[in-house]
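G., before I forget:
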Amino acid sequence: MRAILRVERLTKRFGGVHAVRECSFEVRQGSITGLIGPNGSGKTTVFNLITGMIPADDGRVIFAGQPIERLPRWERAHRGLARTFQITRLFREMTVLENVVAPLSRFSWRALAQSAVSGPERRRAMELLDFVGLSQLAHRKAGELSYGQQKLVEFAQVLMQEPKLILLDEPAGGVNPAMIDRLAGLVRELNRRGTTFLVVEHNMPMVMSLCDPVIVLARGSKIAEGSPKEVQNNPAVLDAYLGD
Amino acid sequence: MKAHSTAAAPAGNAGPRAVRGARWAAAAVVLGLALLAALPALGINQYYQNMLLLTFLFCVLGCGWNIMAGYAGYVSLGQSAFLGIGAYTAAILAVRWHLSPFLVAPLGGLVAAVFALAVGLVVLRTRGHSFVIITIALLFILQIVALNWPQLTNGSTGITLPLPPFKKPWQTAPFYWYMLALAALSVWLSAWIRRTKFGMGLIAIREDEDKAGIIGINTTLYKITAFMASVFFTGIAGGVYAYYLTFIDPIGMFNILLSVQTVLVTMLGGRGTVWGPVLGAFVLEPLNETSYAYFGSNQSHLVVFGLAMMLIVLFLPRGIIPTVGDWWAARTAAARGADGSAQAAAAAGTAPGAGAAGPRAAAAAVGEEDSA
Ligand SMILES: Nc1ncnc2c1ncn2[C@@H]1O[C@H](COP(=O)(O)OP(=O)(O)O)[C@@H](O)[C@H]1O
Ligand SMILES: [Mg+2]
């Protein structure tokens, strides 16, 4: 099985805090891989290192066969890497539609000179808003939406990039149960069409039904990996959660 | 649906109305320009020609500054440094090559853009607050260089430009028209940027630069390009201004007060809006002249500036256009509330910056095509 993402001995310290410690794992192409672990175990930091939000102290990130750990974030995005944020980040003063058309999946001077919201891009953005069920809010300011709706907008924004791999950081956090089901459904649907997912999530029923395999982090390193069942029955995992 | 109807968003169905509004606004702009251009021919006196010329100069400075500070969120205090660069470039080349400064002024724009590129490559590669400091430093460094490099700049003695050949009563008109054209081009560039993908990227950078990078926006390139665009017409205006004054020296040309005034003009009218700097220039520059005429001495003049700055920050922190835009949106929404859309009223009334609809509609007005 081919790995679309390989993380090798990734390391990040914040002062005295060893947030990520020689962390290594792989994400198989076409999978919905779970990434779980107690609070503060380094999941978000791993996402930040993979996407270039912050530089790693050490280690490598191989994406689609190429090392990307030295590339600027937009270059990583152009290669097909996209993410959502644990606390949703939208351009609040822009409309929902503008937020969705904002991403660039490649760079060209000509594209920059085009109308901000126009043509096929606009159509595609409206389709995506339809897909997440928010097309009737397209012209509202993003900042005016409810938290759950904002999460869906960020999801549509990510899809606009047509990424190969999507990192979701607690997609179900602060979202009502109906919306969670809807999100899980969207992830499955996209996965069927070929997108790979790496999902950080605390909602265990969601992880167990959606993800396979599941990777477990504790204190910045991988301590276990396997099917949801295997991971649930792994004593080291129980220790990590209880010992906290 | 029309592209710019997104601007008039919260209230919804703004389609044909917005198009008609944009046509009217475009017509008003053309008419206004024609009227301003005709004024010297209609015989307004030199005092008012001078006042308007300086107003146009502040339109150029303000529109430029606004691209960086208003759209991308990077505030500078160095806009006048690029006026000085343009002035010196035109003065030096005009004297050496025996050409009209009007002809070489565009080269000043290019040199200013090259300086912006160099400064941008140093400070705009990362996110942060060093930009404002560096731009002030640039201003003072250029002043010191101009003072201490007499072979190039004639040092503190300054440079006297060729005498303009224009005869009375047309001695001011050519400068007036040149500056008016630069002001119009500056507004056009700013409006054009505002509605392109490039402009949207700059606003993304202002709102959340890290996120902008994550979704594929090459933030460094955007910022540097914006910085170059923001100083180009200012550089050209420098040459025209120098020719108008016929004499330049380092103290007068690399003057931080001009930068402060640029900030003031844009903040007053509405930072981040296309027409804000224009409105601000047309309010502040006449006020400026009047207070100068009243108080004369430089010091009390400064007090007027300080007061203006304080009043703006206290009472109009977002500037005239956004504030009036909000008020207007709340009013129309309240009127509509009667027929059931109370929700829209609440949204328009309380959302911070809902008035951005105003400036954006104005941006749309400058000839945005229908991309249905
Ligand atoms: N920017 C930062 N500065 C300092 N410490 C940080 C920063 N980001 C994360 N940390 C620390 O790193 C550790 C891992 O955090 P994080 O990756 O957010 O964990 P998780 O997402 O698994 O809950 C925590 O101890 C956290 O306090
Ligand atoms: Mg986290």
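The first helix of chain B runs from residue 15 to 38. The radius of gyration of chain B is 21 Å.

More on Monday.
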